[in-house]
Each structure stands twice: as C-alpha cells, then as structure tokens.
Amino acid sequence: MTIKKQVEPVRPVGVVDTVALSQSGMRRRFLLQGGLLAAAGVGALTLSPGRVFAATPRELRVGNQKGLLSLLKGRGILEKRLAPLGVTVKWIEFVAGPVQLEALSVGSIDFGDAGEAPPIFSQAAGSPLVYVAATVARPSVEAVLVPKESPIRKVSDLKGKRIALNKGSNVHYFLVKLLEKSGLQYSDISPVWLSPPDARAAFEKGAIDAWVIWEPFLAAAEKTLPVRILADANGVVKNRAYYFSSKDYALKNTDVLNIVIDELNKLDVWARANPDALGTELAAVLGLPKSVADVVVSRSAFGTEAITPSIIAEQQQIADVFFDLKLLPRKILVKEAAPPWLAI
Fold this sequence. Notes:
single chain, 344 residues, five-stranded mixed β-sheet, 15 strands, globular
C-alpha cells in the first residue's frame, strides 16, 4: 500500500500486500497473489492492494461480541495502528451477530463479526453488507445443552420439544442440520427465539427443554448449571465466523480494513501459541472465571482467512437451506455480498 495523491483502482482479484513504514511514509515492498504471508515470524493477511488514503479524520465503529475483537479492544492495538491514518476507533458491544448486522444496516457500525447465518438473513433484508474475512472452521464452540437429568438422551429425542436459540444466529443453521442428520424435520421441534441471557434464564426456570448456544455462554453454563451437552457441531457444520463491513465503507477504507484483519490474524497466531495466556487475558477482558475462559480456548480454533469463491459457495448452501425452509423472504445470491476486490 502506498500513499498517493490519487486513489488506486481496486484490482479485480484478491492480492496480498506487505507494507513497511519508512521515514518518508508508507511504501510498497512486496506484491503477491494468495493468502498469508510471514514477516518476522508473524503471519500477515491483507484483503487487497486496495486504496490508501491521506491522514484525514476518519472513524472506524467496531461492533463486537465476546471474542477476539474484545481482546483487540482491551489491548488498544487498533487505536495505535490506525492513529497515523487519522482514524479514531469506537467500540460497541453486542450479545449476538444479528443485532450487529441490524446496526450495520442502519449505519451505526462499520465493522463487526458474526456467525454463518446472520449475514445471510441480513443480506435477504437488504443490508449493504460485504464479507471482509472469515475464520477457520470452529465446530466445537456451539452445542445443544439439556438439563443434566433430562430424559433427552439423543438428538431424535428433541422431537416435539421447546428449543431456545437466537433467531438467525450461527446456531440456527447448526440446529437445522443437526435435526436433519438425526432424521428429524425442522418442523418437528418448537423453536423459542431468545437472546443468550434470556435463554439462560428460561433454561434455569425449566421453561424450555433444550438450549442451542455458543461460546463463551456455553462454557459458562457448563461451569455453573447442572447441564450436559447433547451434541456439538462436529461432523454437522463448519461454523465459521465472518468479519463484515458495508459496501461503501469497504470501498472507501480498504486500508483501514487491511489493518484490522492483519491484527486479527496476528492475534490468531499468538492465540495458537499461547493458550494459557489467552485464557488469562480472555477471562479478564470478558469478566469470566479463568476456568471458563480456559474451556473456551480449548474448544476454539484460531485462524483468519481471506474470502474466496469456495467460502462464498459455503454461504450460498446455507442461504439455500434457509430459503427452502421459508425462513428467508427471498432467495439471495451470496456473491453479491462478496468483497469488492474478489472476482467471482
């Protein structure tokens, strides 16, 4: 990336840049096709050679759930990296992906993270979202919980039961595919749409039969409630998370997004090498006991990937499932939400 008087056009295919800061400013050192680069032992992932802008006042409003973005917030890394570009950072915390995407739709945030399903529902509702990057598959971080003494012993026992979940979240798709794998129809259960805090309250009161939830709510429930895991997503769905922005922000601020994803990738690399330290930091940032944070870390997979045509195809399969179940108001083409630097 190079600061120039004129904006460079976005190339039609994804390209990775590694940049170095010299006394005279930013200057391009390497231009490579592909994904991850190594620099001083730390991987670097950028989205496109994209655009680099002068240090005029700009803002990055980050919507975040409890996860790696919270660690970036706690460390103040983005503020330091983006200050030379004249970019200030504002953080807004949400309990789930769907509400983040609602905020994106009304222009309240510029960047966020969500599971597989929320972006699909958001796109169907006309959101201006674009996928920016993806995590590696993380099937162990979502599961179906039942009371410890529940007579429900296998997934097929969920027939006719009241199951709490966050509508349009990653666990929504997981539940659909889990039921299908066990020979049940989605119509065989009674979904109860509740946010994680409300679902936990209903679970404790016995108002629901099962709860489909993700980390860190999953580990927290295991440590503090008499529960057991009926099934997790291994062998059912990949359960990636996605980082997203709006089309307009992505076109005008690719330099900012490059830095955000680069720092997330660096954090992933560090997390893989330092699970105990990660548990300690995650516990402090999220206000969780270390024992809960350690469980979250042990189940997590860490890695940031560029959006590719194959990842877009994965999302299209999910979108088609929801449309067939009449859960989407219209059929969508996920590639329309592909990042502007990706040719499909």
